[in-house]
From TrEMBL:
Keyword entries, A-Z: Cytoplasmic vesicle, Membrane, Protein transport, Transport
Family: Belongs to the adaptor complexes medium subunit family.
Membrane topology: Peripheral membrane protein
Pfam families per record: Adap_comp_sub, Clat_adaptor_s
Main location: membrane
Record protein name field: MHD domain-containing protein
Cellular compartment(s): Cytoplasmic vesicle, Clathrin-coated vesicle membrane
UniProt record, GO biological process: intracellular protein transport; vesicle-mediated transport
Length: 422
């Protein structure tokens, strides 16, 4: 069952924008929404779905507004949530920020967008590149071109007809972020890899692309269990991917949007070896000074190099007179962050570097009961993936038979990467 209506409310529950799609729910029922939210908060319950009599409220809180969909009977909550998230993405494409002020400044264009995004409670045209062809903004004024693009009435609503390029190219980036938490005793407490496949497509016509990965399930289905394969979890695809084809034979087949888009994202909840290992010895001396010995080692293949490494070492808020030296890179005291920033432009695998630092402390020492913040690390390693995911092939099929060049890059970077200290 689809959504009945969609509301955008301020934090006091007052409607800024509302659109009734089906006429089967009283619009005044939205007055019950905020009291329900407040009742739940008082009881310590935070649920994104609320029910009042026969009406279900499905909502998201974003910055200083609520997005609320109402529905009755057996609503498809997953589809409605996905639609609310898509509204946020489309509005951000148009207005940069989605908050109360931008809603008030652009209510005319927002009503036009809401009419196109959903029809009779069902999501319709949700691709901002296509919407921008016929719903444009200029000084908060709406302009609509005389004709609706073919893409809106086409099965491939995310790509318009008649695209032409002199040079046909596809750029594909596999980007993995490593989330890691290491205890002060050098135990990995949490680790996961969050990956995405991003594309930039410059292709003529209506090409079909087929992407092959070293997918474990695919390899098992085809009897190639010895090959190095990766078991992907929580895979999410762009709407252009033919899901039925993927479910049947794990083929990623799609007609791509033009330009930049995220084809897929995935997660691997796996034990990750810390790529940049940081050891710290911190010594306080009679309430007068503190000394740091920091060792950083690249625990990845020697032929790879981490770029733009930054190791952020927390120091006491009352520290002064910094002195430091390091065997590579540069260290700078950042009092606004209460931290020492150690930057290494190029960090080859297998290398180890050392930083020594000394700070004075006032005679009256701040209490240490708060616990020390962890050391955090930022980095980017090109031509490398932690998971071992590989693009086996990228086929481009177009009726005119032109040749196209696919370019593939791999990048591993830090996500939430923290190492606790004693």
């Amino acid at each position: 069952m689809p959504a009945s209506a969609v509301f955008i409310l301020d934090l006091k529950g007052k409607p800024l924008i509302s659109r009734d799609y089906r006429g089967d729910v009283e619009m005044s029922v939205i007055d019950k929404f905020l009291p329900l939210v407040m009742d739940n908060e008082e009881e310590g319950l935070m649920t994104p779905i609320l029910i009042h009599e026969k009406v279900t409220f499905i909502y998201l809180k974003h910055r200083n507004i609520y997005l609320v969909a109402t529905a009755i009977k057996n609503a498809n909550v997953a589809v409605i949530f996905s639609f609310l998230h898509r509204i946020i993405e489309v509005f951000q494409e148009y207005f940069k920020e989605m908050e109360e002020e931008s809603i008030r400044d652009n209510f005319v264009i927002i009503y036009e967008l809401m009419d196109e995004l959903m029809d009779y409670g069902y999501p319709q045209t949700t691709e901002s590149k296509i919407l921008k062809e016929y719903i444009t903004q200029e000084s908060h004024k709406l302009q609509i071109t005389p004709s609706v693009p073919d893409a809106v009435t086409n099965a491939v609503s995310w790509r318009k007809q008649g695209i032409k390029y002199r040079k046909n190219e596809v750029f594909l980036d596999v980007i993995e972020s490593v989330n890691l938490l290491v205890s002060a005793n050098a135990q990995v407490l949490q680790s996961e890899i969050v990956g995405s496949v991003k594309m930039n497509v410059h292709l003529t016509g209506m090409p079909e692309l087929r992407l092959g990965l070293n997918d474990k399930i695919l390899f098992e289905n085809t009897g190639r269990t010895r090959s190095k394969a990766v078991e992907l979890e929580d895979v999410k695809f762009h709407q252009c991917v033919r899901l039925s084809r993927f479910e049947n034979d794990r083929t990623i087949s799609f007609v791509p949007p033009d330009g930049e888009f995220e084809l897929m994202s995935y997660r691997l909840n796996t034990q990750v070896k810390p790529l940049i290992w940081v050891e710290s010895v911190i010594e306080r001396h009679s309430h007068s000074r503190v000394e740091y010995l920091i060792k950083a080692k690249g625990q990845f293949k020697r032929r790879s190099t981490a770029n733009d490494v930054e190791i952020l070492i927390p120091v006491p808020a009352d520290a002064d007179t910094p002195r430091h030296r390091c065997t590579a890179g540069t260290a700078t005291y950042a009092p606004e962050k209460n931290a020492l920033s150690w930057k290494i432009k190029s960090f080859p695998g297998g290398k180890e570097y050392v930083l020594r630092a000394h700070f004075g402390l006032p005679s009256v020492q701040s209490e240490e009961g708060e616990g020390r913040p962890p050391i955090s690390v930022k980095f980017e390693i090109p031509y490398f993936t932690t998971s071992g995911i590989q693009v086996r092939y990228l086929k481009i099929i177009e009726k005119s038979g032109y040749q196209a060049l696919p370019w593939v890059r791999y990048i591993t970077q830090n996500g939430d990467y923290q190492l606790r200290t004693h």
